[in-house]
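[09:14] KT: can someone run the structure on this one? pasting the chain below
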Amino acid sequence: MKNGGVSTFEMLYDVTEGKLDVLAKALKYNLFEHRQGRIVLTPKRIEIYEKLKQALKLSRYIVRHRFDYVTDSSFATNICQKFKLDKEYVLRILEALRYIYMSFSDKSESWYIRCLTRYMMGVEYCGRTWIVKGNRELRNHYPYYYVNFLPKAEKYFCTCFLNRYGKIREKKYAHI
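[09:31] RB: done, structure tokens below
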């Protein structure tokens, strides 16, 4: 690669075939990869971005319409038809949202949307630790966050608390 491994705007412009809207999204969501001295827009990163977009859309719909239905079953049926999803998967999402509401009843709508999106993007559980994937769209700067429940303090602890502005993040915490 020329310029000592630094990508120039012209190079990125060429990779996206001159489509400025594609270039802007690719830069914003970090979809480029360096491979063998070339900058490429990878299908894997595009697939992750599309999955995240769909999860955000679904999360917004669920959080904003959660009280429109008497039962989860009728709501789940509606979601399945609208988003073409499996009913069992949707019921698990609704159960997760119910748990989040019971545990954290005083949060904003956007906070619930981010939590639900994180859940849909995949949270791994290992022992007493949750491993949460970070996403730039969800205002994350790191690829993974590790969350633990501290029984003595009766609160959750995340590795993001150890980084810059960690004390502020404790109040707005959403990596559950």
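[09:33] KT: thanks! Residues 1-6 have pLDDT under 50 and may be disordered.
[09:34] RB: yep, looked fine to me
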